[in-house]
Input
Amino acid sequence: MSVDANPWDPRKKKTTVVVENDIEGRELAVHCKSRDDDLHLCRLQPHRSFDWTFRPTFFETTLFYCSFDWGEGVRWFDIYIQDRDYYICKYCRWLVRRDAVCLTTDSNQACYYYKRR
Output
């Protein structure tokens, strides 16, 4: 059986990540990257978002990380970790808040604190 014929191959299923500014009254500067891709700086007004779509790797190593700045210092977060997120969402909507980033799905919301650098 070839890899292309395997219906469980994660490379066949696209994932979309959405990052939304949920900070009232503040523009949010977002810069997301992976090892291979730089999505460049994006400036979001409150309740505005940007998104990208990709195919996760077969080896479950896909990682996208972002920096966030709304004028109170830069924060960082691993916005997509394949072995954390692959089975949770194919449409991963993240709300960026002052104290945390929150993954929202149809049935749940999970908030995570920013990484310390």
About this structure: The chain has a mean pLDDT of 89. Helices lie at 82-85. The two ends are 45 Å apart (CA to CA).
